[in-house]
Amino acid sequence: MTDTTGREAGLALLREHALIAGEPVTSTKRIAVDDPATGEILGHVPELGVVETERAVHAAHDAFPAWSRSDPHKRAAVLREWARLIDENTQGLGALMALENGKPFEEAKGEVAYANSFLKWFAGEAERLIGETQDSPLGHVILTFREAVGPCALITPWNFPAAMLTRKLGPALAAGCTAVVKPASQTPFTAIVLAELAQRAGLPQGVLSVVTGDAATIGGVLTASPLIRKLSFTGSTPIGRKLAEQCAPTLKRVSMELGGAAPLIVFADADLDHAVAETIKGKFRNSGQTCVCPNRVYVERSVADDYARKLAEAVSKIPVGGAFEPGVKVGPLIEDKAIRKVQDHLALTKASGGAVLTGGEPHALGGRFFQPTVTFGGDDALFRREETFGPLIPVFPFDTEEEVLAKANDSEFGLASYLFTRDLDRALRIGRRIEAGMIGVNTGLISTAVAPFGGVKQSGYGREGSIHGIDEYVDVKQVTLALR
Ligand code: ADP
What we know:
Layout lengths: L3 H10 L4 E3 L2 E3 L4 E5 L6 E6 L3 H19 L3 H17 L1 H12 L3 H22 L6 E3 L5 E8 L3 E4 L7 H13 L3 E4 L5 H13 L7 E3 L4 H10 L5 E5 L2 H11 L5 E5 L5 E4 L5 H13 L11 E5 H16 L19 H16 L3 E4 L14 E4 L4 H5 L6 E7 L2 H9 L3 E2 L1 E5 L3 H10 L4 E4 L14 E2 L2 E2 L12 E8 L3
Helix pairs in contact: 1-4, 2-8, 3-5, 3-6, 3-7, 4-5, 4-7, 5-6, 10-11
């Protein structure tokens, strides 16, 4: 049975306009947004261009002096009120995300709470923008202040339409920055509702604008503008590189949360049932479309068959379907080309000697649904280079700690990694040597508002969430006092 109440609650929130300085903006040129489960058009957003983006930039610039100098406790209060309104709209926002992203409704409601946890956390951080005092060797006293960087451009992806936004806006607004947001064209509606709720929560006009339209055009204006002092981007590594380059002439501060190719390593001493359950939690969140999803699983040879059999059995039982079907855990992929990528990765694995243990075919539901799939063996090189971003788990046996560590690190990416072992020495020894920003030991879930999130190598730089997240949006200013 389909939960139409949920679906209707989502459609009731859908707004077909962008928001510049608090004003709804439309255009005769529009972009269609579809439901990945059916391909049905849910609605349109305006295709805004250079002029409108510049207007949003100027609004952020004009609003910056007052907002950055406002009482941080007042900013915290706005963030808390915003979080309260989001909480109140959990059903509608969850449903809207389920519609535009395709993720199961229950999971989408979980994302609303996750998104909100960043606003609550950073409301507290606004109240803790603490400076230092220090005696100078010159006999002076040095005071430090943590001041807002300036108007920010925030470019977000479609896989977590709410959480990727609040993970940036929480610290930006807490620090006193203003922002122009460019949400992904596949999932713009959630961002628009969030911005409307922020206004209702008392965010002054101009502090936040949401601009929809052609990504390269809007990105071009945002990165070229000298008025924008900071770019925070979450998305693919190639686009991240391009944007960093575009930010170089104006020397903007830049944070980059980019792709990963996370290894998950299971040692023979691990609790295999637990490792299987956690592999599934990590892999199938958002139907395999997260940058921290395990992309390649390495299992110590003596337990590899056992682990793979248990995994395949559990994966074969995962309920697949539309977002509003009760009990569904895996939904459609975001677009047709995502399905082709899973098929390509599967074909290459099979061609290199990998066996399909479960799944391996487009799902009977058709469209963008693919069967949750486990393969065993074959060549892992592809999975070091590229993230599948879909419901495919390739499992490879390994023999020694050094061998698996070398494979784990032989990747240009370094976002998340996972280890399963009961040996604490080994967990720390390997955990310290893995080139990644985040390591889960005996867990497949590593993301919370209180944990630093971010990568090394070509997975980017900067940290979101945690006590470090706000540093991306502040400059440290020193005032030296010569006391006479
Ligand atoms: P994904 O593969 O997850 O869609 P992308 O890097 O293509 O990752 O997209 C992430 C975000 O970056 C989206 O909001 C997208 O619209 C935006 N984007 C894509 N290309 C550009 C670009 N040239 N300039 C600015 N933003 C871009």
